[in-house]
Amino acid sequence: MNYSWTKDALSTNSTEQIHLLVEWSYGAIRKRRRSVPAKAVGSDLQLELKLEEGIHLKKVGGCRTTLHVGEHGGPAIRLGSLYAGCPKYAVFTFEVEPHATGRILAVSMEWSMRKPDQPLNTVVRADPLFLQFTTHLGLLQNAPNPRVEKYVKISDSPCLVKEAVKAFDQGDPAKGDFLLRRRADELLILAARSGDPDYLIESETIEKLQQLLDATLDPDLFIKVKGF
Q1: CA nearest 188: which of 201, 170, 172, 176?
Q2: Spatial contact of 209 and 161, defined as CB atoms under 8 Å apart
Q3: SS3 of 174, please?
Q4: 8 A C-beta contact, residue 109 and residue 22
Q5: Which residues have C-beta within 8 Å of that of residue 193, sequence separation ≥ 6?
């Protein structure tokens, strides 16, 4: 598991929003042939959070998740099965109230899953995560973590796509088309500025979806886009 905050330090004097990127995998990450199924090493993977005072979970994005109340009363997220060599990620958005200067325990992460030879879930790892609060302007003005910023941006796409599809379904294709084009252009600009190909891939995916949705309104265009 790997944890990355958007920024290294928060202000002691204001309520702020901060993102946490959580990445997990089992074994070395490798490319595999489509004909070879990934090996499941555990099922019912679950992440339960214990939030300290003044820390509030606002939303979770990224991989498919199911949010519920965990055994200890905190928010818990079901993450499905764990496969060898297949990395996944989730983005957690927290609202953090003002704190005194210093380093504090913010969130405790408890991972559990059911291994192939076990009937019930067992805790496999627990990690304490800390936040730094300061009045030092130099620390507060540091640039956000670019990797976290990228996954925050990409994890927002599903909500925007749902909104665009809803607009098409409700007979307002102009709105849906605008939302998708704007997001594709935004991602393309980020790709050019950062040189990160993941932005370009996401932009092309959004653009392709926009073309397919437009094609549903024009049979001739649908045939062209689908390549028939």
Answers
A1: 201
A2: yes
A3: helix
A4: yes
A5: none
| Contact yes or no for 131/103 (Cβ under 8 A) | yes
Whole-Å CA distances, 197 to 6, 23, 104? 20, 19, 36
Tokens 């489509």 found at: 34
Question: In this structure, which amino acid lies at residue 2?
Answer: N
For 76, the token pair is 């818990």
Show the tokens assigned to 51: 């939030």
**Complete edge-to-edge strand list for the sheet that includes strand 2-5:** 2-5, 16-24, 88-96, 55-62
For residue 68, the 8-state DSSP code is E
At 84-102, the pLDDT tens digits run 778 889 999 999 999 999 9
Please give the model's pTM, rounded to 2 decimal places: 0.82
What is the CA 27 to chain-centroid distance, rounded?
Answer: 21
Q: Report how far residue 139's alpha carbon sits from residue 137's, in angstroms, rounded to the nearest whole number.
A: 5
